[in-house]
Amino acid sequence: MGTQQLESVPEPKYWHLKTVLSEALDSEFSVGEILPNERDLAARFGVARATLRQALEQLELEGRLQRRRGVGTTVAPPRVGVAVGTEQHAWPGGPEDAWQPVDCALDAPPASVATALETAPGEPVHIVRRTRMTHGQPVAAELLYIPQSSVPDLSGIDAPSGAARARAVLRELQRLSPEGHDNAVELGSARADDAKELDRLPGAPVLIVTTRFLAQGRTAAVSVATYRADTCRLTFGDSGNVEIHQDPQRRAS
Q1: Kind and range of the H or E element at 228?
Q2: Residue 128 to residue 150: CA distance in whole angstroms
Q3: Which CATH class is domain 87-244?
Q4: If DSSP codes are grouped into helix, strand and coil, which group holds residue 143?
């Protein structure tokens, strides 16, 4: 990466630097390559390290870079196409469901989830933890909140916890007749638990997809799924479904 001083520009200096760095990533670096350290980059571009960090953080948010534990900052691969919220993925535990159950516990949900589920404050619900992989890489972690009224016939199930318990709860949920679902998407920061599962650093940008599943005239379950923002690109189709497509403008070197 050659030396390049930044001239006076009307936009913030870090934003202009982000553009310069993005062009360098396209022309001089390959996917997975480690960038020079911050001190060297700041010196080459004649900027303060704080300005450089802002530019790098923006490129990470846009999926151009990845920060990896024990490795450093690397050039990210093209985003992976993953379907979210389509009809074939509309009901948890269905035959087309791409999520893998990890664990299940009976505990009180956050107050906002209890409100969505219309359960009493502090009332325990089934909390199913699931993960999603694409091409061998973790792309999302999910907490699926299911009120006990949605799965009343669990008394004969021996598994008290773990993936077996999670699968049992999902099987019981399948007995309901789905009536629809709705999604909400927002940008967030990875919490420690999510960061560990997604192989990200705490505080890394993530996309949080909240889905409310409807059955029997009420909310049957609520999903809070955390997607890697550097891996996933969300688009909305005419039907209102949420899909993630590979970005045709991104390319691997």
Answers
A1: strand 218-228
A2: 13
A3: alpha beta
A4: strand
Assign 3-state DSSP to the chain and report helix, strand, coil percentages, each to 5. Answer: 25, 30, 40
Q: What is the DSSP string of 57-103?
A: HHHHHTTSEEEETTTEEEEPPPPPP-B-S-GGGSSTT-TT---EEEE
Q: How far apart are CA 142 and CA 203, in angstroms?
A: 17
How far is 128 from 219, CA to CA, in rounded Å?
16
Beta bridge partners of 132: 140
Give per-residue pLDDT as tens, 193-247: 888 888 877 888 888 989 999 998 999 999 999 988 777 766 554 444 445 444 4
Two structure tokens written together for 14: 């870090």
CA distance 146 to 9: 53
Query: Could you state, in order of their start, the residue ranges of all structural domains in the chain?
Result: 13-75, 87-244
Identity at 148, one-letter amino acid code: Q
Length of the chain: 253
* Other Cβ atoms within 10 Å of 115 Cβ, number: 13
CA distances from 49 to 14, 17, 57, 62, 240 (A): 10, 12, 12, 20, 42
- How far is the C-alpha of 142 from the C-alpha of 85, rounded, in Å? 14
Q: Are the CB atoms for 102 and 95 separated by under 8 Å?
A: no
The pTM of the full predicted model, rounded to 2 decimals, is 0.70
Residues 214 and 123: their CA atoms lie apart, in Å, by 20
3-state secondary structure of 122: coil
* CATH level 3 topology of 13-75: Arc Repressor Mutant, subunit A (1.10.10)
Task: Give dist(CA 215, CA 204) in Å, integer.
Answer: 35
Any residues with CB less than 8 A from the CB of 172 and at least 6 apart, and which? 150, 151, 152, 153, 154
